[in-house]
Amino acid sequence: MIDLHTHSTASDGRDAPGRVVEAAAAVGLTVVALTDHDTTAGWAEAAEAAARTGVALVRGAEISTVSDRVSVHLLAYLHDPAHPVLVAELERTRASRLTRLERMAGLLAEDYPITWDDVLAQTGPGATVGRPHLADALVAAGVVATRDEAFATMLRPGTRYYVPHSAPDAVAAVRAVLAAGGVPVFAHPGASQRGRVVPEERIEELAAAGLAGLEVDHRDHDEPTRKRLRDLARTLGLLVTGSSDYHGAGKPNRLGENTTSAEALAQIEDQGTVEVLRP
Ligand code: AMP
Ligand code: FE
Ligand code: FE
Ligand code: ZN
Fold this sequence. Notes:
The longest helix is centred in the middle third of the chain and has 26 residues, at 84-109. The chain has a single domain (2-91, 166-271), classed as TIM Barrel, CATH 3.20.20.140. It has helices at residues 17-26, 43-53, 84-109, 116-120, 131-140, 147-152, 170-179, 200-209, 223-236, 262-271, and strands at 2-3, 31-37, 56-67, 70-77, 183-186, 213-217, 239-242. It is an alpha/beta fold. Strands 1-2-3-4-5-6-7 form a seven-stranded mixed beta sheet. 40% of the residues lie in helices and 15% in strands. The protein starts with a strand and ends in an 8-residue tail after the last helix. It is built from ten helices and seven strands. Helix 8 links the parallel strand 5 and strand 6 (213-217). Bound molecules: adenosine monophosphate, fe (iii) ion (FE) (2 copies) and zinc ion. Zinc ion binds at residues 5, 7, 62, 187, 245.
């Protein structure tokens, strides 16, 4: 069982990177990818846990990008984590995410009993911050019962608390991932309940720039969406992946709930610069 999309405390997951790998071993995954938002900070700890548990590790990241003002999450696999262009891009995004979250916390503090320190208490050291950390602070303060409730109410785009963050253009990000020797895969391209999704022409444009695959099997895609994306992948010659997008406690996603074929992983491995760490 191969699961190519998970998050740890290096971004907005609730398990430490080593714990994600241990949890993957416990549910019987043979291969897991760690794909924290805009960072590779969890790679070393995950690699150590992979060697210990016998799970193969695909080192990756989920890069925040925009296409025509629509948010696009780009999974990058097996890239050089020190590539200067990519490093600079991710640093810019993380800085913008921090400023943006502080502004959102300030706006929320006008109406609810939370402080920036409460938000920081929910984030790991150096973690890529995001709205889930605000949600956790709101839960801890008793303002809402769950992360989901926070996302459905005050953290939604369009509320007076919502502030966007800046992110690189999706085509530029695909090129940066390729330049870093990585394999770019479009994460949950049809997840319409998260906000606007990109039209097919944008996916064609990304494919022309070198996009390698589409994450088709994801809990945010219903059956018709999966079929449409699978057909599009075939037409464009893109590989197809499936993943859990695991975040630990606080989100219902279970490791291995969607999986990727060995053939697709072999193509990713062929194309990537950094090796898959095998026991
Ligand atoms: P941000 O990138 O800061 O705008 O926050 C978006 C992130 O929040 C996504 O990458 C998901 O990890 C997470 N997310 C989205 N919807 C929910 C939800 N309903 N409950 C918990 N986490 C969510
Ligand atoms: Fe996330
Ligand atoms: Fe995502
Ligand atoms: Zn994700």
